[in-house]
Amino acid sequence: MKTSKVARHLPIIIFLIFTYSAYGQNPMIKQWDRKFGGDYGEIFYNIKQTTDGGYALFGYSESPISGEVSQPPRGSADYWLVRTDSDGNKLWDKRFGGADIDVGIAFEQTTDNGYILGGYSISDTSIDKSALPKGYVDFWVVKTDSNGTKLWDKCYGGLPLASFVLRDLKQTSDGGYILGGNTANGIGGDCSYANWDTSLLSNDYWIIKIDAFGNKQWDRKFGGTGNDEFTVVEVCLDGGFLLGGSSWSDVGGDKTQPSRGVSDAWIVKTDPNGNKLWDKRYGGDQSENLYSIKPTIDGGFLLGVESNSSVNGDKSVPSNGFADYWMLKIDSLGNKIWDNGYGGNGMEEMSSITTDGLGNIYLCGDSYSQASGDKLENNLGVEQSWVVKTDFAGNLLWEKTIRTYGHDERTQIVIGEEGCVTVANFSDGVVGALNSQPPRGSVDFWMVKLCDSTAVTGNSESILTNETWQMYPNPAHDFVTIEKPLGSTSMEMEIVDVTGRIVKNESYYGTNVVVDISTFSPGLYFIQCIADGKVVLPVKRFLIH
Q1: CB within 8 Å of 410: residues ≥ 6 apart
Q2: What strands, in cross-sheet order, belong to the sheet with 523-531?
Q3: Nearest 10 degrees: CA dihedral of 377, 379, 385, 388?
């Protein structure tokens, strides 16, 4: 009797679950990867999953019409929004800018299925920019419909020569938006408040609330007597806002707690009208920089911080290298519940924290570390995307280096179906390892979808169940022979040991491939096969004696 796909692979699935239930590297299987860019360079900032299961990616473009860039440049840098289907295939791209520099940083899909795009602009009124500039650098916000067609745009800033740099935005329950960023300038234009430090060298947090059509409703400013760099805003369950960033200030102004070290993570909680309720700082004896806030169902928050402090102050875990990911769980009043750190022997640059429906936590960013500390794989390039998964209490479950032959930065992730993540960054990578796409320009948007092999069931169009691919002998000693699946023209093979470390990754075009394993240590290994861009099940295992 013919068995189902799941039944045929059940022994392997059970074995893999058992093997990787403790901390280790799950054999994350690539489903697909996509690259978007033109002849010059595209700088990625963020990715969101859309309501139809596709993706939207946002940043800025410096390219002429070329590659995936379908519209001519407005100035030397323009906002660039790319929309894809659920398999990462481009549906459309849209470009917005004036005649100078417009840097896209933050965006969201809105409740009407359109998009709100934000960043900073030094362009005068020209081309797509109908809003009058307020200062030298302004917040610039563009609202589009679901097809990326511009509905309106607005500038927010101060007096001439003033600089206001937008870093984040969120839609609010009334259909409006909260915008947040930095300024070192005082009263003027849209800004109603003076800076605490008047040196013009030190920033304060600046937030501005606008309605659904971009009309200003109010603004607020928060800072100490030193430099305070805003990075993120979140809408809270009570309708208020939690603002986050990094502070070099001691007690003074809006900052009520002394500095721990060089810089600290600093958050400010407000009511729905932007009035401050409380503030908290978190740090050790060196530098902490906060990049992400994730609300939790109990009314508290997870904070994603980059830290190079030792055990000191608020930090209960040492750094593995120059800087690590540092995660804190705080309650609704900002009191620390626990903290944990993750890193290798080099530098980890924190980007964001997100969670799945089971309470698991995912941290992502960029890593310069080789295999060491919590990191099990060497980089293939200087800087690679690095994803860490923990349980709800911050205990590390697995980690994954997104290895490419290139330099990859500003990593963000989307959590998909169970066991799957989509990772995006900007990259100068060439073809090899997880990247199958040649470069378009100096750097491109790049995204890759990976699924944990313990959760893959073979129902995806990007997964192929093909029993014709063979590997022998088993057990093996010096060599194994691999016969690629019938009908396929190319094959990528990856061998993974029981810790999840990738010990070999190569592409082949012949029918039978002889793989040298003479340098491998005795033990159990897994072979993952990708034929013509599709993952092939079953994953095969073999012993080396």
Answers
A1: 43, 44, 45, 351, 366, 425, 426
A2: 463-465, 534-544, 523-531, 491-497, 502-508
A3: 20
pLDDT in tens, the chain (545 residues): 333 332 333 333 333 333 333 445 556 789 999 999 999 999 999 999 999 999 999 999 999 999 999 999 999 999 999 999 999 999 999 999 999 999 999 999 999 999 999 999 999 999 999 999 999 999 999 999 999 999 999 999 999 999 999 999 999 999 999 999 999 999 999 999 999 987 778 999 999 999 999 999 999 999 999 999 999 999 999 999 999 999 999 999 999 999 999 999 999 999 999 999 999 999 999 999 999 999 998 899 999 999 999 999 999 999 999 999 999 999 999 999 999 999 999 999 999 999 988 889 999 999 999 999 999 999 999 999 999 999 999 999 999 999 999 999 999 999 988 789 999 999 999 999 999 999 999 999 999 999 876 554 444 445 566 656 788 898 888 888 888 777 777 778 888 876 556 788 877 766 678 889 999 988 888 887 777 777 777 777 788 88
The strands making up 42-49's β-sheet, listed across from edge to edge, are 42-49, 55-61, 78-84, 90-96
Burial of 408 by CB count in 10 Å (0-12 exposed, 13-18 middle, 19+ buried)?
buried
What type of residue sits at position 46?
Answer: N
Q: Across the strands, what pairs with 312?
A: 315
Dihedral of alpha carbons 21, 27, 31, 35, sign: positive
The highest-level CATH class for domain 463-544 is mainly beta
DSSP E strand stretches across 368-437: 384-390, 396-402, 408-415, 420-427
Domain ranges of the chain: 463-544
d(CA 328, CA 341): 9
301 strand-pairing partners:
295, 330
Instruction: Tell me the chain's radius of gyration from C-alpha atoms.
Output: 24
Cβ atoms of 48 and 108 closer than 8 Å = yes
- The Cα 60–Cα 36 span in angstroms is 12
Q: Dihedral sign, CA of 215, 221, 222, 223?
A: positive
Q: Which residues pair with 150 in a beta bridge?
A: 144
487's tokens: 């009908």
CA distances from 501 to 325, 349, 497, 510 (A): 21, 22, 6, 26
**CA distance linking residue 78 with residue 508, whole number of Å:** 40
The alpha carbon of residue 252 and the mean position of all alpha carbons in its chain are separated, in whole angstroms, by: 34
